[in-house]
Every structure is written in C-alpha cells, then in structure tokens.
Amino acid sequence: MSVSSTIFGKTKSGQTIKEFTLENQNGAKVTLLTYGAIISGIHIPMADGSVRNVVIGYDDLAAYEEDNFYLGSTVGRVANRIANGSFTLGGKTYELAVNNGPNHLHGGLVGFNQKVWEAEVFAENTVKMSVLSKDGDEGYPGDMVINVTFELREDDQLVIEYHATASADTVINLTNHSYFNLDGRSSKSCLDHELKLEAKTFAVADETAIPTGEQREVAGTPFDFSSFKKLGQDIAADDEQIKFGNGYDHHYIMGDFTAKPRLNAEAKSADGQLRMKVYSTMPGFQLYTGNYLGEKFEARQAFCIETQNAPDAINQTVFPSAVLARGERYEQKTVLEFLK
Known about the structure:
Largest sheet: 9 strands, antiparallel
CATH class: Mainly Beta
Shape: globular
Radius of gyration: 19 Å
Mean pLDDT: 98
Strand content: 35-45%
CATH architecture: Distorted Sandwich
Strand order of the largest sheet: 11-12-13-14-27-23-22-17-20
C-alpha cells in the first residue's frame, strides 16, 4: 500500500494543484486532485493483465476548470437541486444562485467542485482533503469546515468519508459525482451495463427535476431494478418521468440516515468481467445515466450513483432533514467495492 503525489498543474489564478495516487498490493490505483477533491481515476487490474480506468475524466486541469458536468468531484454545500434557489431556516429566507433552469444545483456558481482543497496523507492508504466554506459562500449561512477522506483498502474497496461542522445552523448534502463505465474509459456507452438497486421507491419529480413529494413504488415501472437489468432496457420508455429526465436522473429512496453503510446498488460491466457494489449511510442516491455530457464525451457514456439526501430536502418534510445545526457534526460514509 502506498500514497504518492505529483503536481497536476496550475489553475488560471495560479494555484498549484496536486494529484495523489493511492495504490494497494493488488495493483489497484485511485487518483485524486486537490481541485474539487476530484476522483480523477479508478484503475482496476483485470485477470487478463489489462487495467481498466472505470471513471471518465480529463487529462488536464484546464478541462476540469471548464467542466460543467462535475466529473468526479466532491459536490456541496448542497448536492442536487433546491427549488427556486431559496430556503427558509430559523425564520430567515436565504436566496441562492439559480443555475439550473429555475433551481439551484450542486452548490451554486462556485461550488466545492471548483474550490482548491488542502490535502494531507492521513494514513498509509488514506488522503484527507479539507476546505473552508465561509459564511455567505454562495448564499449559505455559517462558516463550514469540510473534511473528506479517501481510503483505498486491500480488498479493492474505496471508502469515502464526509465530515463537516458549521458555526451556525445551515444546510448540507455532500456527494461524489463520479461517472462510471466498468468496461473502461474508452467505452462509449454504459447502457449494456446491468444494474440492481436495493431501493423500493423513488422520488417522483416535476419537469425541472424537483421532487413533487410523491414517493412511488418502482415495481411495474421503468425504474424497477430490483433484479439485474440493463441500464438501456427502459431508458426510452413511454413514461413521463423518463421523458422529464431524458433518461434516468432520479432519486431512489433508501429511508433514513444509517450508522453503518448498507448496500444501495450493484452494477456489472457489459462483458461481465467486473462488478461494483455501492454502500452508503445516506438516505438515498441519485441514478443519473449521463444524459448530457457535452462535446468531449458521448451521451450516456457513463452513469452515476450519487449517494446523498433527496433533492430539495430543505424545503420538503417528507425527506430526512438537510439541516446541520451549529455544534453538530455531519458524518457520512460511502463505499465503492470492485469485484472480479
């Protein structure tokens, strides 16, 4: 097990960005950038001697600075959407940037994905990244200190732990926004992957991807992945929810926050040679099939399983609370396990 680092580049403003590499005894490697606390690569050695990088990303820092799709990044303060860019907390209404149709998305105009994080080798197999989000940052109240640790274990598990505290009551919903293709970065479609999801319900959304409050059973719908099914099987179904998202871009509901990670999802590569299991303490996850990926990638080249609280949870009582109270500690964990 080893951790090494190198200079990845400099931002347009002149800040130096490092790339950290975690490597285990199996030869698996995870690369991390201090820009956006980004997972830039997950390299899995295969039985035939080849190595698959199972997340899509860019080769240079300039491309990450121009990225609009949050590739591999740590997203916050609030991942996903807040309706109309507005919420009320402690009797005060806070107005945020509206950067996704009528809504606030993934922390605003300059979210955590665009910040330069401090990094340190936390253990022989772990890197800890930290950032300070000051009171008023993107309109959110309170100073918030965020620490995210990335640990690569010998059993090919990547463990991501989120920790945060704030100086005032505020809102939080952190996630990692990696896009996966288990056939490797060179593969141009994820639709032949097979997926199995543990969630029994999903959050029905309006045409702007804000939950309506209805939690619908997946059984009998295109959202049913209770047994392994190809991602592309129902992605063009004659279904209003599918049409709203131009595919899958929906929150699956697991329940409340949990003390220990539980299985959320399992995916198989199209060739059946690699599997990924996703575990989390979060109350749900967003399934996104990369329906919009710009000019550098193909639409639906890769998919996301974004473990998180529900979209617009701060405005909807049907979901677990998105409030981080002053003096409390936010602690969540996601585990990605790779199996051959």
